[in-house]
Every structure is written in C-alpha cells, then in structure tokens.
Design goal:
This is N-methylhydantoinase A. Keywords: Hydrolase. Its EC number is 3.5.2.14. By secondary structure, this protein is of the alpha+beta class. Among the domains are: 136 residues, no CATH class; 211 residues, Nucleotidyltransferase, domain 5, CATH 3.30.420; 113 residues, Dna Ligase, domain 1, CATH 3.30.1490. The protein contains 17 helices and 37 strands. It is globular, with a radius of gyration of 28 Å.
Length: 708
C-alpha cells in the first residue's frame, strides 16, 4: 500500500494542495479555486485532484491549514455570544486597556468599536479568589444558575467564562461549567482556565470569548469535513504545530493563523536547506500578504498577537498581515487619490480578468494589463479576460486623469509599498536591519513584486522557491505536533521546588496530549521557557529554560539568559545591580511530537547550452534603462525547464503552474541547487569616462540628464 501524506491550505482565492509519497519521495502539487461559501468543497476538490488515480486508501495522513476561524473574526461575526465573569467586573470589556490604537495620535478622533460582547449580555456571579488561588468568598451557585437560565431563555448558546484569578485556581470555573451543563445543556462553553491559564484579566477574557465565538463554526466545519473525507486528519495551529481534528474542536482559537503559520514554516525549511537560516518570509495571496521573520531557522513567536481588533494571547508565529494581495481592489478616495486595498475581490467574483462578474480593478488586473502575467492561470485551466482588465484599467485611468499604463503601474507601486511597510513593521520596529535578511517570496502573487521590493527595502536577495503558490501547503507537511501550556506564578523569589512542581504539572498535561495523538513516550519532546521582567516593568521577556533537574543552578541559568535577552532587545540590563530585582511571571512547557519531514529534491545542472525562451510577449516595465521604451518585447521562460546554475537577466518573465516572476531590467535570477530562483540586482557596469561637456554647458545638468 502507498503511504501518501497530503497538505491542504485553504486561502481566500485558491486552495493549494501538496502530496508527498513517503516511499518514493515524490512531491506533487496542485491548486484549485477556493469555495468561500463552503470551504470543504474546495478542500475535497483539491484532494481528488492531487491524488490523480490514487485512492483515499493510499493516504496515510492529511494536514489542513484553514481560515474558517480567522475569517469569522475578521468579518466581525461573533453572533449569539455571552460572557460570565466575577461579580463587580461586568465592565472589564468596556474598560479594556484604556489605550488608543496606533495611528490615532489623539483619542478625540478615535471611535471605540463595539465590544465582542455587549454589556447587556454580560452576567456576573458571586465568589472570589485571591491571586494565589485561595478562596476569599464562596462560589454563589444560585446566582450561577440564574445566569445560566438567562442565557438559555434567550437562545445564547456560545458562552465564555472568565473569573478573577482562575489562572491560579480553576475550581470556580469548573463549578460554573457544571451549572451550565445542568441548566443550559445546549451551550458551547469556553473556560479561561482551559484556554489561557495566564494572568491579565482583559486579554484572558477576550481570548476566551474569541475561542467561544469560533467554536460552533469550527465544530460544524470539522464535522462536515470529516464526513466528506472519511478519515482522521490534523489541523495546523498558530504556534507552528499541528493537532488532530478531534482535539482541535476543543481549542479552535489555536487555529486562527493556521495557513500563514504553515507558510512561514515551509519557507523557513526551504531557506535553511538553501543555506539561508535567517530570512524574511513574504506570503502573497489573493486577499492579503503575510510577512514573518525567521532567525536561525525558527520563526519568531509572540503571545501579543491579535486577529482583527481582538487581542489573542495564545502562542502564535509573529506574523504581520496587510490587505495587499492579488485581489486587492484599487479605488479612488474622497480626496481623489488612488488607493489599493485592504478590501479584496477575493475568489468570488474575483478580479475583472476572472470574468466572473467582478466590477472593480484589482492588483491582478494591473499585472494582466501590463503583460506581467500570462493570459491564463494554472497552466491554462483558468483563461483570463484580458480585454476586461484593459477596459477596467482604462476607465479608472480616465477618472484619475492619467494614462492607463501609469495607472496600472501606480496600482502596483502602491501595493509594493504596502508590502514593504508590513516588512518594516516586523523588522525595523523590532530592532532588525531589513538589509541583513534575504527574503523568501511565495504564494501565488508573492513573486510578482520582488524586484521592486529589492529596490525599496535594499534587500540583498529574494529567494523564490519552486511552486511558490504551494509553499504553505508544503509547510503543513513539515510541522510537528505541538501543544503549549502556561502557568502564571508572579514572584521575585522563585523557589526551585515550586518551579519544579509547576513544570511537572505542565509536562504531565503535555504528555497526556501527546499520548492522545499517538506518540509513544520515548518520542516526546518537552521544551521549557519562562517569562521574566525587572521589577516594576509591565511586560515580560520570554527566554528558553534548560531541561534537567530544577535546582539553584537551573534558576541561575534562566536568570542569566534573561539578562542577556534584555540587553540584546533593549540595549541595557541590570545583571549586577541589586537595586533592580528580577520578577518571574509565567512558566511554560511545550510538548512536541516530531514527524519526519519531506526531503527537498536537488535540481540537476544543465547538460550544455543555455535556457531557451518558449515565446515572447509585450511587457510594460516602468523602470527601463535610459533610452529604452517602457513596453518591451520580453522573452518568456518555463520554470520547469530551468536547471541548476542557469542565470537569466531581465527583462524576462518566468512562468510556472500557479505563479509568475516578472524579472525587471537590471535584475538577474539564478537557479540554485534546489531549484530556487535567487533574484538580485545586477552588478552595475563600470562607469564610463565622462565626456567633456560642450563649452558653456552645465555639466551637472548633463550628468543628471544622462542618468534620468
């Protein structure tokens, strides 16, 4: 029997699928249009397409990256949601953090958005614990029952429960769940002590409510998909691990960055194999662009992320998302300026060139108009309505009072700057120099603007993997099973025996989860970490903690790592200053079940000769060498015909199934050992000796004009 593993990444426009035959090592990729009304349809279409004659019985495992939970949050659809909290804390969601989002310098201009649960759907229950989990006032069972019946009588079925200090002792929340099971058995309940056993009440409350909001939708989707697939499967999590579908329905919030996380991990493996352990990853899709930073082979993690306007303190790969995809709509602001995104035409109706009823010009239409993508997609499976794109761009240009070429080029320039701003957010704002990192560009639209991004950001190079549109799906097959567990314990004097007891409890939770996933104990891997800060600071720095016995040497090693990390991040530390005590805040354990990653095949060298174009097309480049026309007759190359060591010089267009790389004048693309195209700015030719200017001429003006 064959043993085939399949990764399926459902995006806003396309569903990407990769299959790996673990006997032969063969990797097969394909794409199919997404079906936003019912994502399971596109999922199954992709699975059938990639199997190509094989049976589902030949499939040994399926891993899924899904946007179901993310889309519900981004579209603000948390319907029928209720909140139960401690008496006296009914307005915790209204008070929040009393902070104004970035971009609003003065709160006068900011309108507070609606809370995830309106005040009239918040109920409080008597009972109180202190910060150590000791009971101050007993749980009020009668009040709890009245709250449960109130939600039952109004048909509110998704409920989040967050009691004060339940991270230290979940007993009151467990009793509330028992009351709800008795009084309101139809309710879907999320407890904060299950979702996020960590302090900071506002973030813990919202994270719990987000979990409750998406839980009914995810349960229906997983059940539907399980019925259609007829076999168990796994789902990608935001933290860079996977979890079985049977388990993920109990913690659906962990899937909110499912697809983008897989892309960052797949790109990290591809880059490291190619000799680039630290890179920026750029995943350009139909709806958005996701960027992340990989340092020494590992994507950066955060617990300070958010989805839409909702803070989510679950561990997740640190990803910045902007509405700059192929389907991003070009529009004119009330002031008369051209804007691009964040609104997207998506998969349905899609860009004008899809011919499915779209009425607005998109980034893809601009590429089509300028000849930078072929007149069909997916190897001819999706013909494009070039005339519709041309007419749409022309109409938009007329409204702007510009020429159509300038309008289309302007759309792409704005999109490139939107992407570059996202990259700066995740590098410059975090103290990293973007010029130190090559970039891995993938996703269907990821390679389209790489030449412009090299110039805008000063990137040393851009790596475009083979089959860039399927890197996220490939990444799904490289991911270990991973679960994260956390316990808040705030103290300036952490005793080793206390730390050992907390870590042992967290390790036990991780072990039981890996047992349920089918991993034998000898394959379990446990990674410890701790969050620390200098006393008086508001936020923590996370550092890895060593394994082995938890004793004074272990404690000293963690403290030493904290001082080093703080110095590296902020430029100062208080290692030898007794006036600044270190405060321990959280202890963490991640349980990892390792899998066998697919091997990335090598690309053979060319046996003599040079790559031969398969055709040519008129392409507009708005950065031609001096004296060259912007419309150029440009050679076209097939990506699958390139061999290791081949070097192409722009202008050229490199086409493949699922993606296109326009190589601008002045750039080169070299195929490396594993078939990646490494794009760089071509070396400038040595300057010619300046000619003597005519008598009386302005030499400065002549020099400027010659390079214009």
């Amino acid at each position: 029997m064959r043993n085939v593993r399949i990764g399926v990444d459902t995006g806003g426009t396309f569903t990407d699928v990769v299959a790996v035959d673990e006997q032969t090592g063969q990797i097969t990729t394909t794409k199919t249009p997404s079906t936003p009304a019912d994502p399971a349809v596109g999922f199954m279409n992709g699975v059938r397409k990639v199997l190509s004659g094989l049976r589902l019985a030949d499939v040994g495992g399926v891993v899924h990256g899904t946007t179901v939970a993310t889309n519900q949050l981004l579209e603000d659809r948390p319907l029928d949601l209720g909140f139960i909290t401690t008496e006296g804390f009914a307005h915790i969601l209204e008070i929040a953090r009393q902070s104004v989002p970035d971009g609003y310098g003065n709160s006068y201009f900011w309108v507070k958005p609606p809370r995830i649960v309106p005040v009239h759907r918040v109920k409080t229950v008597g009972g109180r614990l202190d910060h150590l989990g000791r009971e101050v006032r007993p749980f009020d069972e009668d009040e709890a029952a009245r709250a449960a019946r109130w939600f039952r009588d109004r048909g509110v079925t998704a409920l989040g429960v967050c009691f004060l200090h339940s991270y230290a002792n979940p007993a009151h929340e467990h009793r509330m769940r028992a009351v709800l099971e008795r009084e309101h058995p139809a309710a879907v309940v999320s407890l904060s002590s299950d979702v996020l056993r960590e302090y900071r009440e506002y973030e813990r409350s919202v994270t719990t409510l987000v979990d409750a909001a998406v839980k009914p939708t995810m349960r229906r989707y997983i059940a539907d998909l399980s019925g259609r697939l007829g076999m168990p499967f796994s789902v990608m999590k935001s933290n860079g691990g996977v979890l079985s579908a049977a388990e993920v329905v109990h913690q659906p919030i962990t899937t909110v960055l499912s697809g983008p996380a897989a892309g960052a991990l797949g790109a990290a493996l591809i880059a490291e194999t190619a000799g680039h352990p630290s890179v920026i990853t750029l995943d350009g899709g139909g709806t958005s662009t996701d960027v992340a930073v990989v340092v020494d082979g590992e994507p950066s993690l955060t617990t300070e992320g958010s989805i839409g306007r909702y803070p989510c303190k679950i561990p997740m790969i640190d990803i910045v998302t902007v509405g700059a995809g192929g389907g991003s709509v070009a529009w004119i602001s009330p002031e008369g300026t051209l804007k691009v995104g964040p609104r997207s035409a998506g998969a349905d109706p899609g860009p004008l060139c899809y011919g499915k009823g779209g009425t607005e010009v998109t980034v893809t239409d601009a590429h089509v108009f300028l000849g930078r993508v072929p007149p069909n997609l997916l190897g001819g499976e999706i013909p494009l309505a070039v005339d519709a794109a041309r007419a749409g761009v022309g109409a938009l240009a007329a409204r702007l009072g510009l020429g159509p070429e300038r309008t289309a080029a302007g759309i792409l320039e704005i999109s490139a700057f939107n992407q570059s701003n996202a990259i700066r957010r995740i590098t410059v704002r975090r103290g990293l120099d973007v010029r130190d990192f090559p970039m891995v560009a993938f996703g269907g639209s990821g390679p389209l603007l790489v030449c412009r991004l090299i110039d805008i950001l000063g990137l040393p190079a851009v790596v475009v993997p083979p089959g860039p549109g399927n890197v996220s799906a490939f990444g799904l097959l490289t991911v270990d099973v991973k679960n994260d567990y956390v316990r808040t314990h705030v103290t300036r004097d952490l005793r080793p025996e206390t730390a050992a007891a907390i870590l042992a409890e967290l390790t036990g939770q991780a072990a039981r989860a890996l047992d349920r996933e089918g991993f034998p104990r000898d394959r379990h891997v446990y990674a410890r970490s701790a969050d620390l800060r200098y006393y008086g600071q508001a936020y923590e720095v996370r550092v890895p903690a060593p394994g082995g016995p938890v004793d004074e040497a272990w404690r000293a090693e963690v403290l030493d790592r904290f001082h080093d990390a703080h110095q590296r991040l902020y430029g100062y530390g208080y290692r030898d200053d007794p006036r600044h005590a270190v405060e321990w805040v959280n202890l963490r354990v991640s349980g990892v079940g390792p899998i066998t990653r697919p091997a990335i095949p090598a690309l053979p060298p060319r046996d003599g000769g040079a790559p031969v174009p398969v055709g040519e097309r008129r392409v507009y480049f708005d950065d031609p060498p001096s004296g060259s026309p912007p419309w150029r007759t440009t050679p076209l190359y097939r990506r699958d015909e390139l061999r290791c060591g081949d070097v192409l010089t722009g202008p050229a267009v490199i086409e493949e199934y699922g993606s296109t790389l326009p190589l601008h004048p002045g750039f080169t693309a070299e195929a490396d050992t594993h078939g990646n195209l490494v794009v760089r700015r071509a070396a400038a030719p040595p300057p010619e000796a300046p000619a003597s200017p005519p008598a009386g001429a302005d030499a400065t003006h002549l020099t400027h004009g010659a390079g214009a």
